Amino acid sequence: MLSAPAYPLRVEATLDPRLTRWMWLVKWIFAVPHYVCLFFLQIAFLLVSLVAFFSILITGRYPRPLFDFNVGVIRWNTRVNYYCSMVLGTDAYPPFTLEDVPAYPVRVDVAYPERLSRRLVLVKWILVIPQLLIIGVLATSGWTTYRYIDDYSPFSGLIGLLSLVAVVILAFTGRYPRGLFDFLMGLFRWLLRVLAYASLMTDTYPPFRLDSGGPDPGPDPGSDPDPDPDPDPDPGPA
Q: What is the rounded CA–CA span in Å between residue 88 and residue 14?
């Protein structure tokens, strides 16, 4: 049986085996300083994506410093969501950093593409519409392309509802249901893949599938997911 192809975005998560029964009720309060930081980072994320759009359109490249910054914003936001609104799979307080933190229970990375299609960047917003319709159900009741970055409403959408079910079960039994965790991670992973594509960080279209569980079948983040060094046949400006 053939394995599913890897996606350039990688998400690895570990369920905290010692989650407290009631801490999830107040985590959103503890996360307020993060919300303040992420408000400004979200604005920067949008501006960087706009600059990257023109860079890709002209040169076929996403400037590496800008790419690393936006990956960092997604990484930071993912840790906060994993802690207090989506999945709620850890009691470990999220660090204030854009960098990867290997010791934290959830990690996100995106393989840097050496080249991106200058033509595809013009139509990604159209191609991603079917995915956005699905994500609108998974994440919130009114999702837009970058809503994930600044949406802190807990327990909204299917992911939030299932997260609430999981922590209610935790409150009464002292155990976070493993099967529900695996399913939630599949949904969360899908959301992040769509975000990466809509943010112009990859030309690989998000698959319509769930890769459930904590481990991710994604590639080594240091690898180049785009084997074709130049997806555009035209040489572009000299």
A: 11
* Angle, alpha carbons 65-66-68 (nearest 5°): 65
Q: Look up the pTM and report it.
A: 0.83
In sequence order, what are the beta bridge partners of 108? 11
Burial class (CB in 10 A: 0-12, 13-18, 19+), 81: buried
Q: How many Cα atoms within 13 Å fall on the side-chain side of residue 74?
A: 29
Cα Dmax for the chain: 66
* E strand intervals along the chain: 9-13, 106-110
For residue 167, the surrounding DSSP H or E stretch is helix 157-173
pLDDT of 134 reads 83
Phi, psi of 106 (to 5 degrees): -130, 135
- Provide the sign of the torsion angle of the four alpha carbons 218, 10, 62, 103, taken in this order: negative
CA distances from 26 to 20, 77, 86, 137, 175 (A): 11, 18, 14, 25, 18
State which amino acid sits at residue 124.
Answer: K
SS (H, E, C) 120-141: HHHCHHHHCHHHHHHHHHHCCC
Which tokens hold the place of 225? 């997911």
β-pairing, 9-13 vs 106-110, is: antiparallel
- Round to whole Å and give the CA distance between 235 and 238: 8
Encode pLDDT of 148-160 as tens digits: 444 444 556 788 8
Domain layout of the chain by residue ranges: 9-198
Q: 117-176, pLDDT tens digit by residue?
A: 999 999 999 999 999 888 877 765 333 334 444 444 455 678 888 999 999 999 999 999
